[in-house]
Amino acid sequence: MLHDDKAHGSRCSMLLATRAGALLYPRMGYERIGTLLIFALKNRTSL
User: Fold this and answer.
1) pTM above the 0.70 mark?
2) Rounded mean pLDDT of 7-35?
3) Please, what's the b/e burial string for 25-38 (b: 16 or more CB within 10 A of its CB; e: otherwise)?
4) Contact 15, 25 (CB under 8 A)
């Protein structure tokens, strides 16, 4: 997949993944360079 992208002119790509996906992507040629943590408030219900 990455070889095809490179052949068509792509110079870089990135993925966001769940923990399960993060185990798969190194097999596809990706390298982990960081971790993004997202914090969000829980949805509030009507009172």
Assistant:
1) no
2) 84
3) eeeeebeeeeeeee
4) yes
